[in-house]
UniProtKB/TrEMBL annotation, chain B:
Its main location: membrane. It is found in: Cell membrane. This is Cell division protein FtsX. GO terms for biological process: cell division. Residues 56-148 form the FtsX extracellular domain. Residues 171-288 form the ABC3 transporter permease C-terminal domain. Forms a membrane-associated complex with FtsE. Belongs to the ABC-4 integral membrane protein family. FtsX subfamily. Part of the ABC transporter FtsEX involved in cellular division. It comes from Glycomyces terrestris. It comes from the Bacteria. One of its GO terms (cellular component) is plasma membrane.
Amino acid sequence: MNVFIDKGEFVFFIGPTGAGKSTIIKLLLREEVPDKGKITVGDTDVTRLRRWKTPAYRRSIGCVFQDFRLLPNRTAAENVAFALEVIGKPKSVARRVVPEVLELVGLGGKEHRYPHELSGGEQQRVAVARAFVNRPLLLLADEPTGNLDPDTSIEIMRLLDRISRTGTTILMVTHDSNIVNQMRRRVIEIENGQIVRDQARGVYG
Amino acid sequence: MRAKYVMSEVFLGLWRNISMTVAMIITMAVSLTMLGAGLLLYNQVDVIEEYYQTNLEVVVYLDRDIDEATTEQIRQELEDSGYAAQVVYESKADAYERFKDTFAESEDLVASVDEEVLPAAFRIKMNDINEAPELQAAFAEREGVYQITNQRDILQQVFDILGGAQRLTLIVALVQGIAALMLVANTIQVAAYSRRREVAIMKLVGAPNWFVQAPFVLEAVFAGVIGAIFAFATLIAAKFLVIDGQFKDLFSLMPPISMQSILLLLPILTGISAVISAITAWITLRFNIKV
């Protein structure tokens, strides 16, 4: 398969289970390295990226998952700050940026709640905030609404839409036909590792 | 900030897995104690060798019924032989005195030995102790000579015992060391598993590898250093309680083990232990669980 995604695009990857949607995410994160083929993100050839350069590369990518992946013993603000902390940003940066981002995702006032004190939608907002706090060029979302009810899902999509408007490329894997149909963005359908449809402003079909 | 985070992770990790941490420290301490004892023995053999090299004597025991003329002849021959730097005659009476001194605490033994039994002897300081066999060969068959002993042969037995003890301590150190390193590897795996969520998130947001690995490696280093300190304390205790204490008489045969050489072991043991633990932890992370 051969795909080009332009800067600032919002793309849905859809397809049946086992089609290879999540593999795309893993390849882009360099959690897996392909046997052949070439993946380029920005100027980086991910397939030829050295192991020790992977961390630096990942900093240019944000990632959101179905299961949120928050640290349970840290508050919303600390979870977001953690992403800055581990890449060596000074605390002063975190103090300035974290409230901003939490405000952006609509969690103002809930900075000091722990994940178990937040609803699923709110937890996913924290995850989005963490993915976005470094202002990545590319945001990967692996079924981000998979664990959320329809109303909450739409709120999360609005949030992703807003982030997309800042110029961030968003690549989202999903099963959620409602969302795909409502958003009317580019849709790439995959089956058995092959692209069967690539449609600008597409529907789930 | 990051240093603080790493340190708190280290102690949390060790505490969460406390039984394994204790097992790791104990095995390391035993291994390092043995290694330390082995090194001390190694040092001791050198010290003893040097100490005795200048004091060793060859003793020519004379027949009990020897007459004065023959004795005087033998002395002359010994002095003329060129091997001896100094020849000292020890009469039967002298020998008995020496015997009484040596075994002053065992009166029964002293009482049971007749003054006449002990032979007279020439105690010879050699020009070169390595020529002792030649001297022995030359005088062994001489009329009036009962027996010739080279103190170095006796000392050789001491060396053999020390050498054996040294080999034993080093083998125990090696076996315990392997066990300790396996425990390190295991502890690191358990620690990495219990923190897999943090590790996954750190890697996801692009934390540098050293930052992800540091808490685990430092955990191993910390345990290694504590183990080394315990080993050091054990050796100090052994010096005061065993060597200078209960078995003072036994060890007084040898030159004392100096405090200085024990103190020197602290940095050596700590360094060896910390470095090997760190390498083991890092290899475990790198190749076993791919952190």
